[in-house]
Give the backbone structure.
Amino acid sequence: MTATAPRANTTAAAVRRTGARRGRGAPYAFLAPAAVLFALFFALPIGYAIWLSLHKVEVKGLGLGKGARSEVWAGPANYTDALTDPELLDGALRVLGYGAIVVPTMLGLALLFALMLDAERVRLASVTRLAIFLPYAVPGVIAALLWGFLYLPDVSPFFYLLDALGLPQPDLLDGGPLFLSLSNIAVWGGTGFNMIVIYTSLRSIPAEVYEAARLDGCSQLQIALRVKIPMVAPSLVLTFFFSIIATLQVFAEPTTLKPLTNSVSTTWSPLMKVYQDAFGNGDLHAAAATAVIIAVVTLVLSFGFLRAAGSRDQQGDPR
Amino acid sequence: MTSVTARTSAPAAGTTPGAAQAPPPTAGRPPLRRRIALLPTAALLLGAAYCLLPVAWVVVAATKSGRELFSTFTFLPGTGFTRNIADLHAYRDGIYWRWMGNSAFYAGFGALLSTAVSAVSGYALALYRFPGREAVFKVLLAGVLMPPVILAVPQYLLLAKADLTDSYLSVLLPLLLSPYGVYLARIYAAAAVPADVVEAARMDGAGEWRVFTRIGVPMMVPGLVTIFLFQFVAVWNNFLLPYIMLGDDEKFPMTLGLYTLLAQGSNTPALYTLVITGALLALLPLIALFLFIQRFWSLDLLSGAVKS
């Protein structure tokens, strides 16, 4: 063993060197499928959307025959049209209100449940974890459909209860309650997923950290507030982030509730307006402009948020 | 709240130092283990009840005939379950099962391919240092943030130019690259595949691809199962893409099929019972999948891998 060791070391070093040289192209080869897919289904469509948003259809004569309709440069016209469109503004405001209810409620519950799952001597943790996570597996359409029926006075147990107690019965599919109803669907569907993300990061905290905190005389509550929450802050940032994005993109739920109520218009959320412009009104250029605006707003918000979170992390970092 | 937490945790705080001093830790411990943390357990049970409520409702509602649905108490089981199933089966020559099969195909096949792409990309991002790595990661992040609609509308138009809209491929192809899946794979790979093990395999003369398939993939399996599950659910739940891409209801996934049923139901309420029964049957495969996958669920494995 001792005799061969030096030789083995040198060959190992040699192999490592050739391995490194040989492996230099490997990461690029590994990333090739993702790169091709990205180019075809992300970069190209985005480029095309931007191109569309800067053009418009010009109709010559009666618009009949070949070449009568051509796409010409429109400059920022589609954007000014979209930005001054009251429907888009209303949709954006509705989604903001909706997000202001959904995101804090959902993440608050997710964090609470994650901490409870991680607490000591909790019973039924795996069963309840699965139950709370379950709605994540329910498609938004089906979730909206189930809750939609539960909002109907003839079907819902809530109305049965209210009726039995002699309380007034609100219309859950109109006006202010509609926001709460839609928010509830999102909270119901999203809490479990976010709980799992936070819980995963809780579980990856080394046990020694708790031991240390306990030796310092921290109670469970103090450990949760002063150790656990700060240590899972990155995953809270992550979940916040994804929740905002998901909220801005709300589409399936209001679309599904539409058949059940007249209060959800075809342009209830900005994305629904994009769909309506593109396929309802056939105005692809206006749809593209609106879509680009939504994307830009999303990206600016996200990167701004990430930067703010990142700089705060760096300030906290002793280095 | 504070009082309960303080009560249950006070003895723990008292005994742990004793347990930390190694010799006989068993003396005072077993009774404490059996004590239940009431408040967290109660909170979790409430959460579980809230999450199961609509599921419980749909189970009961699916047993009701069309008349019972609007007339009897919500949680009173009805008498029409077999009739509802038969009606659903007969509706448009059993198109419901076709939707179910389509969903399984889109989700199963799509998730499998997408997991493979995520695995190889995430592995590359986690275990190699190469020029452009940060750029790739930033682009990936931008991809995660990109609203699907800004993608879906031009994707539709571009696929229309390639004459691919209203086909299975039109729903499958755009979903193959999941930036979020790659992101997760990167995290799992960084946590579960130790760089020194990879280095050791290289020293033994294994090529990069071989290192990935023989060392990387087996170590990443728990994470990959999770990514597969996430992708499966994402595709199964997807509504926007098939809504935009498909016109022929023979190719519809479950979500879109049920949506069209519900939309028609506003004119013909008889369809409501079909929608409800259909929703219940659509939930069953995923619930089964979740229960089945529980044992492969990587959370505990993941945290174990992080600790070791």
